[in-house]
Amino acid sequence: MTTPDPRAALACPFPAKLHPAVHTARSHVDDWVVSAGIVRKPASLARFANADFAGFAAATYPDTDVTGVLLMADWFAWLFLVDDELDDGITGTRPDHIGAVLADIATTLRAPDDASAVPVGNTGAVRALGDLWARTAPRATPGWRRRFGAHVGECFTAAAWEANNRVHDVVPGEAVYVERRRHTGAIYVCMDLIEPMRDTELPDDVLADPVFRDALDAACDVVCWTNDVFSLEKERRLGEWHNLVAVVGHARGLSDQDALPLACDMIDARTAEYVEHEAALLAEFDTEPVRRYVEGMRTWIRGNLDWSRATHRYREGASDEHTSRYLEPSLMGGSS
User: Fold this and answer.
1) Which of 198, 191, 227 shows the shortest CA–CA distance to 69?
2) Cα–Cα dist 237/233, whole Å
3) How big, in percent rounded to 5, are the helix, strand and coil portions of the chain?
């Protein structure tokens, strides 16, 4: 008898939503990645289209304006293409190169607040980021831009940590993996983008309050762990250990098959914890900015689950030969 896939039983208490401009976003982002020069190979373009990052943006930011959903489709394209280079390509085994790219990214994100900020490198990732940032920065305050830039920096610092683990064959423990996963998954970055996409900004007292941090981290964990269970087969075929299922299995002496149901149980339990933390957050800060942010976390949790089930991104076979067909060496300035 075939054992039911536990991923099919993952539940979400929030309703599905989809931006009405989803079809426009799909056409737009397909054109943008080509014009930005970050997708060039025919195999890369086909794989990109199958992933449906515009559909992901429409499901996770369904209430933004049309300009916003087009921008978010482009952000997702950039984030996932960079993630492919970090996870599937040689860049993911070169902590020093990741640091060099991060320096240029950090410089790019200092504009428009620092007129002297000019990146040294000329990689596809940095050039495309310049376009994204020119469209994002005007929608936010200097304080938000600094917070966002810090979170992007933490993503690349965590990516260098993963690269170092790969070089030295280190499998992280569960606790450290969970903490770092919020950074390698760029989920703080994506949650930051709720604010300009919903025309709001959280005040410092909310951002600093433990009740907000508890809700945010719970939402981030649900999103990242959901990504892990759906991307498991792809990542394991590439020999990747940075996945909740693999980490749990390694720590507890279990196969991936036996660890997968445990990871799904963890997602369900963390979702229930998020609901509790959300209620506590709204009880303490029942304000319009917080309500808008909470709605953004809800659509992220639900939209991520729906997209993960629908996308073809994780259904393709993965091998070194296959990745060489779709990785773009010019994106990160290294040979993939």
Assistant:
1) 198
2) 6
3) 75, 0, 25
CA 166, chain centre distance (Å): 20
The one-letter amino acid code at 96 reads D
Q: Which helix (H) or strand (E) holds 280?
A: helix 256-284
Cα 244–211–63 angle (5° rounding)?
A: 75
Q: Which two three-digit tokens encode residue 119?
A: 């990146």
Please name which of 225, 235, 234 lies closest in space to residue 262, comparing C-alpha atoms: 225
pLDDT digits (tens, 9 = 90+) for 140-152: 999 999 999 999 9
What one-character DSSP code corresponds to residue 171? P
CA dist 256 to 181, 213, 259, Å?
18, 31, 5
Confidence (pTM):
0.93
- Which class is 21-313 in CATH? mainly alpha
Whether 222 and 274 have beta carbons less than 8 Å apart is answered as yes
Question: Can you tell me whether residue 201 is helix, strand or coil?
Answer: coil
Domain ranges of the chain: 21-313
CA-CA distance, 221 to 227, in Å (whole number)? Answer: 10
Q: Answer yes or no: is pLDDT of 242 > 70.
A: yes
Each residue of 222-235: pLDDT tens digit? 999 999 999 999 99
